[in-house]
Amino acid sequence: MSKKISLFDQVGGLPTLDRVHKRFYDKMYAHPWLGKFFEGHDQQAIELRQTQFMGVKMGGAMRYPGMALELAHRRMYITLEQLELRQSILRESLEEEHVPEPLIKRWLKIDAAFWGHIKNDSLEEFQQVDLKYERPLIVPNPDA
Ligand code: HEM
């Protein structure tokens, strides 16, 4: 019986995830709007967590020892517009790393499956979240 090859192996395994996420977070950290969320956060640590998280979801033999996404992002006011912008930056990074288009589509579909854990539908709803001692982080669009 033939074994189905995981998406993780199809894209080239850990070296590909490492390269994509390095490129992706270089762009995110440099971004005039989304970059503000990452100020004071170690880029290499976030790259590693993203690789572990996606590695597991893509069927790799990996472990994700990080926080639940809802908890990791709950102090950030993240909207659908920002998630779409983030995904266009992720797509650009995947294309620049020559990941084939059908695999890009599968990668982005997995990514989008977790938006529900992170997305805020309105500022009113966000302001009702009990953040305990954490400071809320709302970043207005510098171009708006
Ligand atoms: C515009 C959207 C997003 C922004 C601005 C954002 C920002 C951030 C920031 C600032 C952190 C560091 C949190 C901390 O260390 O306290 C973080 C962690 C993380 N994010 Fe996001 N994120 C976004 C969307 C996503 C999405 C869609 C995913 C997954 C599909 C994701 C996966 C992760 C993971 C795995 C971590 C690591 C959590 C940990 O360290 O335990 N993020 N994000």
From TrEMBL:
<keyword id="KW-0813">Transport</keyword>
<protein>
    <submittedName>
        <fullName>Bacterial-like globin</fullName>
    </submittedName>
</protein>
<dbReference type="GO" id="GO:0020037">
    <property type="term" value="F:heme binding"/>
</dbReference>
<dbReference type="InterPro" id="IPR001486">
    <property type="entry name" value="Hemoglobin_trunc"/>
</dbReference>
<dbReference type="GO" id="GO:0019825">
    <property type="term" value="F:oxygen binding"/>
</dbReference>
<feature type="binding site" description="distal binding residue">
    <location>
        <position position="73"/>
    </location>
    <ligand>
        <name>heme</name>
    </ligand>
</feature>
<dbReference type="InterPro" id="IPR012292">
    <property type="entry name" value="Globin/Proto"/>
</dbReference>
<keyword id="KW-0479">Metal-binding</keyword>
<keyword id="KW-0408">Iron</keyword>
<dbReference type="InterPro" id="IPR009050">
    <property type="entry name" value="Globin-like_sf"/>
</dbReference>
<dbReference type="Pfam" id="PF01152">
    <property type="entry name" value="Bac_globin"/>
</dbReference>
<keyword id="KW-0349">Heme</keyword>
<dbReference type="GO" id="GO:0046872">
    <property type="term" value="F:metal ion binding"/>
</dbReference>
